[in-house]
Design a protein that fits this description.
Length: 339
């Protein structure tokens, strides 16, 4: 059990950078399972090289040190070192995909960066020996590609493999691994079954720092499986979700921070209508926030952000975009209460 957690933690730790401080790449999406209906991608190197983080190097270094400390405490750090892998230098992006209709399965994870297959294989075998307790790790061939089959006691089998020096995948279904190899090699078309999901993906790109795309169907299923799904407020949210085809969101950290939220409509005409209504609502909201800011000076940064909001239609998608400038971000941080 501990061994499996260590393996997955090595992938999941990329998220910790964002917690301490969420770009779907074209090459990445083509190898995801065809029935994928949720994708979350972290473009780590784009974030670390952004002007915003470069301007806060001290805080970033402190965050990195804290993350490294956590990795070392979980005994993951030593295996990463043996694998010759530095998360902050070698990990370019991390994508987590969730297939529809298979909620009991672990997600499909794609890591892109710089990987030394020989060192990583040696580190995995060493970790398995130290883990003991019946953990089984063996080299297997899936679709003529070398992979590791990891069988922790009482947990699902994991399949981990390096497709090339830039691409590594991990999943719980052997068929997902095999199909990913076929799409990666070009022997099988990389496409998605859900048309709405393909439409939503068009609102994201590999220049964004974080992106999230999900069909309304899958989000609704996640909401229904929530332990608190039976309270009145949750029931209202679930009922509302049933009327939405899909969602998207993205954040781009550069000199400033650009963000967007998207909702999929039935068609392009409906999206245009929604954009018109949204812009009308934004005009009223801007006026209200500006009015309140006259009485509360600490709301001035909020006014700056609200004034950047604008709604547009992108095909059948309604997109609301906005921006937080570096100056505005500093004002917001100054207004936060002291811990």
């Amino acid at each position: 059990m501990q061994f499996a957690r260590r393996l997955w933690l090595a992938a999941a730790c990329a998220f910790a950078v964002l917690v301490a401080a969420p770009a779907v790449q074209a090459q990445g999406t083509k190898i995801l399972p065809a029935d994928t209906e949720l994708v979350f991608t972290v473009n780590l190197q784009q974030i670390l090289n952004s002007d915003v983080l470069k301007s806060n190097k001290t805080l970033v270094d402190l965050a990195k040190a804290k993350i490294q400390e956590q990795l070392d405490e979980k005994e993951v750090g030593k295996y990463l070192k043996k694998a010759g892998f530095d998360i902050f230098k070698d990990l370019s992006s991390m994508t987590v995909a969730m297939p529809a209709g298979r909620m009991d399965n672990d997600p499909f994870i794609l890591l892109q960066g710089n990987f030394d297959s020989e060192k990583i294989e040696n580190a995995i075998m060493e970790a398995s020996k130290e883990a003991g307790s019946g953990v089984k790790v063996k080299n297997v061939k899936i679709a003529n590609t070398s992979a590791f089959e990891v069988v922790p006691p009482g947990e699902k089998t994991l399949y981990i493999g390096i497709l090339d020096k830039k691409t590594m995948i991990a999943c719980a279904a052997k068929n997902d691994f095999a199909e990913a190899v076929a799409r990666f090699n070009g022997t099988k078309a990389g496409t998605f079954k859900a048309e709405v999901f393909k439409s939503l993906l068009s609102t994201t790109n590999n220049k964004q720092s974080l992106s999230f795309v999900a069909t309304g169907k899958l989000v609704n299923k996640l909401a229904e499986n929530n332990p608190n799904a039976n309270n009145d407020q949750a029931k209202m949210v679930i009922a509302a979700l049933k009327n939405v085809e899909g969602f998207s969101a993205a954040i781009t950290i550069a000199k400033d921070i650009d963000f967007q939220l998207g909702v999929n409509a039935k068609d392009a005409e409906t999206a245009q209508q929604f954009a018109g209504m949204a812009n009308a609502a934004l005009i009223l909201a801007k006026a209200e926030v500006t009015k309140k800011a006259k009485a509360q000076e600490n709301l001035a940064p909020v006014v700056d952000i609200v004034n950047t909001l604008k709604a547009d239609a992108n095909g059948a998608n309604l997109i609301i975009r906005g921006q937080i400038t570096f100056a505005t971000l500093e004002k917001l941080l100054q207004n936060l209460p002291n811990p």
